[in-house]
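Trying the structure run again after the queue cleared.
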Amino acid sequence: TSSDAQLVYARSLRQSLASDPHRPAYHFTAPANWLNDPNGLIQWRGQYHLFYQYNPNGAYHGTIHWGHAVSGDLVHWTDMPVALSPTPDGHDAAGCWSGCAVDNMGTPTLLYTGVYPQVVCLATSDDDLVTWRKHPRDPVIDGPPAEIRDACGGHFRDPFVWRSDGKWSMLIGAKVEGSGGLVLLYQSEDLLQWTYVGPVIRGDVASPDPFWTGTMWECPNFLDFGRRQALIISAQATHADLLYPFYASGQFDGARFSTEIQSILVNGVPGYFYAPQVMRADDGRYLMWGWLREGRSERACIDAGWAGAMSLPLEVSMELDGRLCVEPAQELASLRSQHWSFAGRLLADGTDEFLPDVSGDALEIVAQFEALSAGEVGLKLRASPDGREYTRLIVQPTQHQVIIKRDNTSLLGDLDRDLCTAPIPAQGANGTITLRIFLDRSVLEVFVNGGLSSVVARIYPSLPESLGVGLFSRGGSARLKSLDIWSLASIW
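Done. Tokens:
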């Protein structure tokens, strides 16, 4: 069958790229070509389904389809046939853009953005989730509401749908020229006929406080923690430059959201972690994936034959004070293999040393530091023995920030080298700073103090021997309280 042929082809594509030293081993990637936003996250009959924005024609954004993969354990994935393809002369002729999946009384249902113009489309499947039929009544929403139609420039996308109080609610991202991003609310009894309720939350393009939220809001998510609710939104700047996902934590009264806390969800160079989507697992956890953009040129991606990776599967929880906490899913511990453990010790001012016998480009590292007098303390990763290549992960206790410094990360040209920084949230006892680091070839995901802050970077070392791990302390002494390192197995 054509779907069998697709899967054989997907397997051959994966095998052809398996030896690429920059291709992640335990982060999900498309078989080849272009991947961006996670879509349609759903747990169906116990299996986790991950759909994603996919261009089968090359490692660049265009002719967007919905790729599809399935997992029984959140860790290992099996490629499935492409779920949605643009229909020539259809409402999605230029692409099947982002959206979500819901269980409509036993019928798996996708609601997604058709382009152009940007409209909401619907597709259903039998319960295998392999073959999808587009609904004859598409589009179920034919464009922005009248009140913003002339002011949004056609920007109206990324439906996120959930059921509560006997009805369906939909959030959708939009903008008002000169005013900022906003999230719109619709409601429905049957997923086909939708009533516009109004804007749930609005941005202010003129306000830099507590950070700038851009000109367009994409990929809205709604999370209900009982006493408080949260929205996760991806902010975009002018000319479609990606910024960052942020969250608003507060109260949702069914029509309007009142914000108590607003914070960046995951830090890094703008766009490095973007367009996250959440799902509610059967066990009640909120699980989230984000799109990890490349840090090299489009030309380099096309030459490599692939672009984009998913973040780790992440668990999103809420602290008592309303802050969101983002941590890697507990299932990832199943990938741990070789283990190195180092006793706590003092790192004198000027320490800069390799850890003996530790090397790898697919590692999990848990490090606890106590700064003492040090201005900077941290780790060197992907370090070559001759010192020509390394990436520094720096803790600056007095500035309350963690930095990924990439000046010496690679001898290759044409790479992003901007600093990636994240705030250090309130420290533990004695000013202890805990870093949980996931290094996966070109991907670096770092979680600070239990996931109250995190930062993502992309690195592309050129030397095959750039596999070392080191420790350093500058501007004073620091205490390494504990250090555990595991090599992680490939998910393929």
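Helices lie at 2-17, 146-149, 298-304. Worth checking whether this holds up in the mutant runs.
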